[in-house]
Amino acid sequence: MNEYIISTCSTADLPKSYLDERNIKYLYFYFRLNRKDYPDDFGNTYPYKDFYNNIHKGAMPTTYPINAETYYNFFEQHLKQGLDILHLSFSSGLSISASSAQAACEELSKQYPQRKIYVVDTLCASSGFGLLVDAAYEYKQAGADITPLYNWVENNKLNVHHWVRADDLFHLKRGGRVSGASAFFGSMLSVKPIIDMNFEGKLIPVDKVSGSDKSLKTLVERMAEHAQSQLNYAGKVFISHSDNIKDARYVAGLVKKTFPKINGNIMINSIGTVIGAHTGVGTVALFFFGDKRVPERRNKIVAQYI
Q1: Which residues pair with 64 in a beta bridge?
Q2: Which domains does the chain have, with CATH numbers?
Q3: What is the pTM of this model?
Q4: Please, which residues bridge with residue 89 across strands?
Q5: 162, 198, 202, 207: which is deepest, by most CB within 10 A?
């Protein structure tokens, strides 16, 4: 078995310490704020609290994906060390980054035919993306070779659920992540939008709930409907938030009460600066392994929303 690395990018919204301790390699996306560019480097260069305070004051950050040249240089440094690569990329439904990684992979595969380079378009985002990275790492630790692990990730990536409670849809609308009509009605009615990640890795508004507590309970209700083994779910749960630790902890508490077999396997992470530029402040998202995201389920939920 050849030695290989798992790599990913900052939009997995995992702590830097988590990635470093596991030797998971990573690249940074970038964002621009007040005419200056910054790396999405886990709040090191630009602390999360300062970032979200600026959004509170009306700042409108923009974001930049990782280009093919950056991926090429990143991959090649590991190939030169005799390492194979399994790279998990941010959803192509939200960024062109996955296609850039694929382009670099195709070029390098010609130059290093003796090496294996796999790029997975995870169709996941934030700590849902991170949950898939975590699962891949666990399988690697258990002795999985790179090719079977690549196949497992491809076969299971659509089982990662993303249930998101946005404070409003303005920032997602501005970034083109949801339709203008949905954002308009969400804001006008002063409701908390519930958003799902569909089978194409795109964000789809699926419900409108009045009241903060009720909207957070809705996330856990969706988990009860869709989690593997439902209320007997014993896998990991990741939660991410944009400057809203109180609500994130509230959701974690509800999950613990609802799913007694989880045994504390809940990680709460901050939404990073790149994804936070699109979610705005106050978002809470719940991630777990469940039934597969398929077109039929997406169509049913969207019909209910409309």
Answers
A1: 30
A2: 4-158 (3.40.50.10170), 159-305 (3.30.1180.10)
A3: 0.92
A4: 121
A5: 162
Q: 3-state SS of the chain?
A: CCCEEEEEEHHHCCCHHHHHHCCCEEECCEEEECCEEEECCCCCCCCHHHHHHHHHCCCCCEEECCCHHHHHHHHHHHHCCCCEEEEEECCCCCCCHHHHHHHHHHHHHHHCCCCCEEEEECCCCHHHHHHHHHHHHHHHHCCCCHHHHHHHHHHHHHHEEEEEECCCCHHHHHCCCCCHHHHHHHHHCCCEEEEEECCCCCEEEEEEECCHHHHHHHHHHHHHHHECCHHHCCCCEEEEECCCHHHHHHHHHHHHHHCHHHCCCEEEEECCHHHHHHHCCCCEEEEEEECCCCHHHHHHHHHHHC
Q: Which two tokens stand for residue 11?
A: 């939009």
Q: Name the residue with tokens 């030169």.
A: 80
Structure tokens at 154: 């491809």
